[in-house]
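#onboarding

Welcome to the new folks! Below is a worked example of what a typical request in this channel looks like: someone posts a single protein sequence, and someone else replies with the predicted structure as tokens. Don't worry about understanding the tokens yet, we'll cover that in week two.

Example request:
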Amino acid sequence: MSLPELLNFCRVNLGETEAERLIGWLAWRTGRASALAGSGDPLTRLEHVLTHWLDDGHRRALLAWLIRRRDAGAPMVPGQPAGRTPR
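Example response:
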């Protein structure tokens, strides 16, 4: 699984609110400030995070984890109520 696959998955499956929440969650998990995610819309900022904050192994693990959550009907981002997919 490559960075383009992860980016495509996020663009197809995450709304702007979810992308922003994922940025915050990844910032917390990596010990960074979400303000360092760049500027622009949430999906552009998420692309920056996925490209610059994670290595290939972490990106593969994140994509697999997101796919499992989607397939199980769980919220895509931790802390989001189940059954709600903001777009």
